[in-house]
Amino acid sequence: MDVKVSVAIATYNRAEMVREAVMAALAQTRAPDEIIVADDASTDRTVEGLEAIGDARVRVLTRQTNSGGVENWNGAMRAATGAFVAWCSDDDRFLPHHLETSIDFLKQNPRVAMVHSGFIDALESGGRTKMIERRLRSKRPIVVDRRKLARYMIRYYNWPFHPSTLVMRREVWERTGEFNPRYALADTDWFARAAGGFRIALLPRHGVVNRRHAGNWSNRVGSAAMQREIYEIVGRRISNPLWRVAWRVNVKARLAWTIRMRIATGHREAACSAWRVLAKETGWRVPEWMERWGSNWIGRLCAGRVAESGVSVSPL
Q1: Quick one: 24 and 67 in the same domain?
Q2: Domain-located, residue 247
Q3: Are residues 184 and 90 part of one domain?
Q4: φ, ψ for residue 216 (rounded to 5)?
Q5: Which residue among 174, 200, 218 closes a domain?
Q6: Cα–Cα distance between 305 and 286 in angstroms, integer?
Q7: Domain with 270 in it
Q8: Measuring CA to CA, how many Å separate 38 from each of 27, 35, 64, 77, 290?
Q9: Domain end: 176, 198, 218, which one?
């Protein structure tokens, strides 16, 4: 007998996008048994649009006040009752075979507790959408666990996983615990914690369409803030001292690259933000005068450059 499959979605003021996410989930070749949508006190017509779908499998949870995001994510996951649970961000959408392929792999590989996949970018700008298929990282599944986490995060730092591709056994959520609202990147913290207790496989396939638009969560958090959190999140999970050193060097190199690229595109504030993180929050503690000197130097390099607009295809 087949097992129950749940899809969990958290949303806020994205009436059209979340409706598309739900419709894509309903259209799966292995359709979910329930879709839980947790609405974080939206002020648009999100709830009305979801109720208009008229499918009994879609259950909408509404909040009276806005939680700020992470607690609403937890509400969606807590309400899911399936033996398998898939997460989907409200601005993404599953490709047709995503659930079927993911669940089949979990059934055939009982030692793996959670899977994720590659994705296709949909770059939205100026009323147009450009689809870019991300190159798959391997022809075979890549398995990560506690011992391999540092190596995996160093190699795939920019996109270690896409949250909308996560499909897990319910046990993973129950034992790992909820998303931690301390972090803006609560999903990354949760992924690192899950890897501490379970085997996770990256499947060699594309699972979702990843929408890149001006309202992306990653755009609001900002590159430097994200890298500060990732540095702390992963660093706390590494026990081997050599890998801890490698992780620090990796983050410093990534921040230096971020500074260089932000200077090249004229984004002074973003470059200065990355410099402050590099100077004060990655194991170094440079003097105040050096931090000011670096910010002034970045300002001079950016002078006269016009900041380029557009939507990045990488959160970092």
Answers
A1: yes
A2: yes
A3: yes
A4: -55, 140
A5: 218
A6: 28
A7: 222-302
A8: 20, 10, 12, 9, 47
A9: 218
* Residue 196, CA distances (Å) to 7, 27, 78, 142 in order: 24, 34, 21, 16
pLDDT single digits (tens) 80-114: 999 999 999 999 999 999 999 999 999 999 999 99
Q: What is the mean pLDDT of the chain?
A: 90
Nearest partner of 229 among 259, 251, 207, judged by Cα: 251
- CA triple 43-48-49, angle to 5 deg: 105
Q: Where are the alpha helices (DSSP H) in the chain?
A: 15-26, 46-51, 70-79, 98-108, 149-155, 170-176, 186-195, 217-221, 223-235, 241-264, 268-280, 288-302
Element (H, E) at 29: none
Length of the chain: 316
Closest CA to 69 of 41, 36, 47, 40: 40
| Paired residues of 237 in beta bridges | none
Give the angle subtended at the CA of 313 by the CAs of 307 and 316, to the nearest 5°: 75
List C-alpha distances in Å: 289 to 144, 154, 176.
42, 31, 43
Helix (H) or strand (E) holding 61: strand 58-62
Q: Are residues 207 and 61 in the same domain?
A: yes
Distance of CA 259 to the CA centre of its chain: 22
* DSSP state for residue 314 in the 8-state scheme: S
pLDDT, tens digit, 9 for 90 and up, residues 128-161: 888 999 999 999 999 999 999 999 999 999 889 9
Which of the residue ranges 171-185, 194-208, 257-271 would you say has the lowest mean pLDDT?
257-271
Domain check: are 38 and 134 in the same one?
A: yes
How many domains, in total, are found in the chain? 2
